[in-house]
Amino acid sequence: GVKDMMADGTQGWICPPGDPKRLAQAIDAAFRMEEQAEVMGKNAGIHAAVTHDPQVNLQTLMNIYREVAGL
Fold it and tell me: Around Cβ 61, how many Cβ atoms within 10 Å?
């Protein structure tokens, strides 16, 4: 899930599903700590650019297919 895709507190805030109070706290924190939220947004963008690179993902997938196919 999301915990595998981002680091809580450095790339954003992860809120448990079905916890509107925690979600409201995170939204409030984003408005109160604008500089920290901006840094986290930049960190998340950098992380996403690396982990969601189409060429890297294609190569990883092709390696899996080759391994499964015994090539």
Answer: 10
Q: Which residues of 6-21 are buried (b: 16+ CB within 10 A; e: fewer)?
A: beeeebbbebeeeeee
- Least confident piece of the model among 9-13, 14-18, 48-52: 48-52
41 CB neighbour count, 10 Å cutoff: 13
- SS3 state of residue 48: helix
Helix (H) or strand (E) holding 4: none
The Cα 58–Cα 20 span in angstroms is: 37
Cα four-point dihedral sign 45, 51, 57, 61: negative
In order of 12, 52, 58, 68, the CA distances from 16 in angstroms are 13, 24, 31, 36
Question: pTM of the prediction?
Answer: 0.65
